[in-house]
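Worked example

This section walks through a single chain of length 524. The input is the sequence exactly as stored; nothing has been trimmed or padded.
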Amino acid sequence: MKKIKYNLLIGLLLLESSIGLSAQTEDNNGGSVAQLDLYQQEAFAFDRADASDLALGQWKSYSNIYVGINYKDGTFHRPQQSSSATDYLFSAEGALKMGEYRIAGGFSLEQSYNKNVRFNSIIDPYRGTPYILADSTGGNWQKQSYALWAKGASPFFHNLISVGLDLQLNVDRGSKKIDPRPQSNVNSISVAPSVTLKQNDFSLGAYIRYRRFRENSNLILYNTNEPQKIYMLKGIGQYVYDIFSNNERERQYQGDGLGYGLTFGVNKEHISMDVYADYANYTEDAMDIESNKPRKRGCLYETHYTGGTHINIYSERAKHLIAASYFWQERSGREIIQIFNSSPTVNAWQTDSEAPRRSVNKQTAVKGSYSLFLFGTNRQKEKDDYLWKFDLEARYETYSDTYKVMDSYLKYAACHIEAGTARNIALKGNNSLLIHVNGGYHSPSDKSFNYTERETTDPTIAQGLIYPDRDILWSSYYTVGGDVTFSHQLAKSGTLYLRAGYQTLQAQHNLQRNTVWTRFGYIF
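Given that input, the structure is written out below as tokens.
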């Protein structure tokens, strides 16, 4: 398996290299960090599943490869997150034209070292499922993540219709080094075919997206002379527990779902816009492997709606990018009790009873943003090499997590605002300096909370998980940060760049978090 994995990674890297070399021979002879920043922000289709929309509007071929390091540390983090983390990154992505076909893709690799992770046995405890095997010992995790994405669009046949395809693959591995020692493996894939119809300056698109997810988590107990208490979480601090004294315990998560989307677009000389709507439904089973047979513990049901618009306005020496969106999501958990039927004709776990909608989590968000790019000269405008950039974003969100049968709930609303500015400075000798600063403020309101403890004699979950999580989610905070990028444009083609950044978050109760990062990359 290891040999297959390494060969796969080598193949992906060679694929990205070929994309980059192909892009270099296209209409792009290298670009700056500022040019790529603007292009990726104004190209709507890069962030959505409707790949056929790539056939609309202007196109820029590029390749961007970088390595980087992230480090964050501090007391402001949710209980199932690490107190500090170090991430080593590699990323390669590109966009090109093959004849009249437009193709984009990327590959990334991340190696993470997370310290002091508690109440967790899976890669991402906040991805949505309430059914997590948790322990109280905590420990350090090591994780590896691989991500591959590709999308392509055909030209408009008969100047009327384009077809596209969006593919995404994610593979994650992680383990903890203290008993009980979870070893988790994740793979997820999504496939989204799409079609776009065009009539003059107007377009109408549609897509369907299939998503599949699987995670295997094995808890291994090296020292069986010291049994461990395992909390089988069911939602907002509710659980059943077990004393883990065997060598190994396995839990599997398997899910899939479908999503659908529509887009409407307008592309004119001085303005382009689109309006989009997306619906998705997803189900996921949580199962323990007992007696060599899968035993269902719960089922997660997830539904979400998304809608919004992007508007790009182009004037003589400025570009205005406006966006607005609405998001609604509900996740509910169905608890399942199964008993083992050992008769020769069955020999499997069978459902004895079910309890729907025990755990219900609802989230909504309304967001608006505005970005202004200013150009000093017509030449800068033609190259999209902006002189100034100003960003403003505001968001209002609501959050509700309930477990009605135990009269437990956590609710709040919050306003978040963030602003930033960037200055692009030309230096001597084909060098440039991009300076960016930003800040934000987050203010929760409409708070309500109640929690009924499962065991009054064991306060571990209440004091270690539920109350600290409430305090973090209810905290107001502000952020201040920035980054500096030094770029050197090579004589023949391409740009080398070095970026370094820092952000501090200061919250109530003297909580704080600091993040530093650096990137070294090559755009060509």
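What to look for: The first helix runs from residue 2 to 24.
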